[in-house]
Design goal:
With about 650 residues, the protein is of the alpha/beta class. Helices cover about 50% and strands about 10% of the residues. The strands form four sheets. Strands 1, 3, 4, 5, 8, 10, 11, 12 and 13 form a nine-stranded mixed β-sheet that branches. The protein has a three-stranded antiparallel β-sheet with strand order 14-15-16, with no helix packed on it. Strands 2-9 form a two-stranded antiparallel sheet.
């Protein structure tokens, strides 16, 4: 065979060029120098293979040789970090199989095929390939008929190419095993001793939930809120790896059809009706928190008098300083981040198919369901997610009138005026879910022309300026809520307004310098008092007919749907029945802590041998609707089933 002869000749040439016994005498070097050159030659060959493979992966994934070249040549992007990781993988696998460069036959298909699939997915679905896509085999299968119909020759080429590739890989594997140079025991140990610790250290710094100085220096920047940019900046292989931990979603032990059928629910009275159809406006206020909780400083006047008077309780945020989408996920679905892998972002990784939400519930009741956010629709993948949640419209920066700014962000006042304008244009009852933007950090000193909140206390000037900016934003959010309530009080139809903060603000050194907490960020684990202090944000549930609801207490965002529907007089098998049963026992469900209605906390509940049956059923039902067979759809989410008939 000509190909086999050519490969044999190539391997013989490489072996001859790097063999120390043959090389040394030819040029007069000693045995040590010749051996060093031999090792260097082999390492250079592995490095060249790594460079070539990464170039091909990026060329395929980007569909552009030029962009792939720019990726490799740009020092502000982690191309050479990726090459280094693959180089170490080559060394480790070569050592494991005891064959020089045998690893390229194993790794190349695992890198090139996903890159090709990612490119096809981008063509048809606009998104790159995520590890979590393999949790949704149906989505991948649905892509194939589209490809066959739109590009039949491409589809045929893929099939033929896969068949040829399988046979070629089997043949190459057998050929390489027989003909590639065998690594000596000492060489294998040396390669493993170098490669494994470095690979382990690299894996350790890849947790994007924690800042890593080394990762930052290597230019690996996790851009989890914008996966398109994440893949563009970090490259396909690195971005795919950053998303890998979130693909580890397994069914909880005991999950099956009978487990869902056996979940008890609160009985729904026959012919249950509610008092008319109130309009509902939910405001998730960006970084809204009570800054008067900071010790050793005084703010005057009170920046949030309206909210303090109307406050119903607190939301126990699962996040701190960011990750708004995770809080939003809980608020809209009634599901919990506590049952998902640590560090996961459902909006980015798991929402691939229609998911039950407040939007589908209200649409089932004849409402207009609309999402409103004065930023671009791609952020946090909201455009696709809101569609999956059943919203009829998403009013974003692209399709709303220009708004006044506070710094670079749309003001709460301008957003409130837009909400009022949209509401006045509707005759049908409506459900608005609105995410504000003004409160977003960082809190630069000159965001506002005039700060009206005075900050007193022994603080560095930079902290004082940041706190004054933040407090002014809280005042304007409070003023905007009052404006919305004043408008609602003039309406005949009942109007329910719900406001809550998504998480504490990223005030950085303000926290330790005031003594509020020891570090710049909140603890993930701690005492009940510590966790409540660092994760509670204000909650207001108010009606223009009945005023504020009082004494709700501290609740997880997942129970906001229960509170909203309860206030509106609605009954629902999941949002008021099932969640109501859980809320009566556990109003806070955090990844690391359960808090019951008596205020008693159960830390590390997820690691115990048994968990409460209510929490077990909650996890069953969430897994069923997000990843499972959806056994509970007809029983718990009939309006969702009707709305998305044929799409699930």
């Amino acid at each position: 065979m000509k190909l086999e002869t050519a490969l044999a000749s190539f391997e013989t040439a490489v072996h001859a060029a790097t063999a120390s016994k043959a090389y040394g005498p030819q040029i007069g070097f000693g045995a040590r120098q010749a051996k060093a050159l031999s090792i260097a030659g082999r390492l250079i060959l592995s490095l060249l293979l790594s460079i070539t493979l990464i170039f091909l992966v990026e060329w395929i994934a980007r569909n552009s040789a030029l962009e792939a070249t720019q990726f490799l040549l740009n020092p502000a992007r982690p191309a050479w970090t990726t090459i280094g990781v693959f180089f170490l993988l080559f060394l480790a696998l070569d050592a494991a199989f005891a064959r020089e460069n045998y690893s390229i036959i194993l790794i190349a298909p695992l890198a090139l095929i996903p890159a090709f699939v990612s490119r096809q997915k981008q063509i048809f679905l606009s998104d790159p390939l995520y590890p979590t896509d393999f949790l949704f085999g149906r989505q991948i299968m649905e892509l194939m008929p589209v490809l066959v119909r739109d590009r039949p020759w491409t589809a045929a080429g893929i099939v033929v190419g896969l068949i040829v590739a399988v046979f070629a890989l089997v043949w190459l594997g057998r050929f390489a095993w027989r003909r590639f140079p065998v690594l000596a025991r000492r060489q294998r140990i040396a390669r493993l001793a170098v490669a494994l610790p470095l690979l382990g250290a690299f894996v350790h710094i890849m947790d994007y939930n924690n800042f890593s100085w080394v990762r930052d220096r290597l230019q690996v920047i996790p851009i989890m809120w914008d996966q398109t940019e994440n893949y563009r900046h970090n490259g396909f292989a690195m971005a795919f790896a950053l998303n890998l931990p979130m693909a580890n979603v397994t069914a909880p032990a005991g999950y099956m059809a009978n487990a869902i059928d056996n979940i008890p629910t609160r009985p729904m009275p026959a012919g249950t009706s509610h008092r008319g159809k109130p309009d509902v406006i939910v405001l998730m206020s960006e970084s809204f928190w009570d800054p008067t909780r900071l010790p050793n400083v005084k703010l005057s006047p009170d920046p949030m008098p309206t909210i303090r008077e109307m406050q119903s309780g607190n939301v126990f945020s699962p996040e701190f300083g960011g990750m708004t989408a995770n809080v939003e996920f809980e608020a809209l679905t009634g599901f919990s981040n506590a049952f998902l892998p640590y560090g996961s972002i459902p909006y980015q990784q798991y929402i691939r198919n229609p998911i039950p939400s407040l939007a589908t519930f209200f649409r089932g009741e004849g409402y207009v369901a609309r999402a409103v956010h004065p930023f671009q629709k791609w952020f946090w993948n909201r455009s696709a997610v809101y569609k999956a949640f059943g919203f009829e419209q998403f009013k974003s920066e692209e399709n709303m009138p220009p708004m006044q700014k506070r710094g670079i962000f749309a003001s709460d006042e301008s957003l409130t005026e837009e909400i009022i304008r949209q509401a006045d244009d509707l005759r049908d009852p409506f459900f608005f879910f609105t995410v504000t933007l003004q409160g977003h950090g960082p809190y630069e000193a000159n965001r506002y022309a005039r700060n009206t909140i005075k900050v007193e206390g022994n603080l560095p000037e930079s902290d004082r300026a940041a706190l004054a900016t933040y407090a002014q934003g809280i005042k304007e959010a409070d003023d905007s809520l009052k404006k919305l309530m004043d408008w609602a009080n003039e309406r005949d139809r009942e109007t329910i307004i719900v406001l809550f903060g998504d998480h504490l603000p990223p005030l950085n050194t303000v926290y330790p310098n005031t003594g509020f907490m020891n570090s710049l960020t909140a603890s993930r684990k701690g005492s009940l008092e510590q966790m409540k202090a660092q994760h509670e944000t204000p909650l207001v549930v108010w009606s223009n007919k009945t005023g504020p609801v009082k004494d709700i207490g501290t609740i997880s965002p997942a129970f906001l749907s229960y509170q909203i529907l309860k206030q509106g007089g609605f009954e629902h098998p999941y949002y008021t029945g099932f969640l109501g049963n859980i809320f009566d026992k556990y109003p806070v469900i955090d990844r690391y802590m359960l808090i019951d209605t008596d205020g008693k906390d159960t830390p590390a509940w997820g690691r115990k041998k048994t968990i409460p049956s209510l929490i077990r059923d909650y996890r069953f039902l969430q897994h069923d609707m997000m990843f499972g067979k959806r056994y509970g759809t007809d029983r718990f989410f009939q309006s969702h089933a009707d709305l998305f008939a044929g799409a699930m």
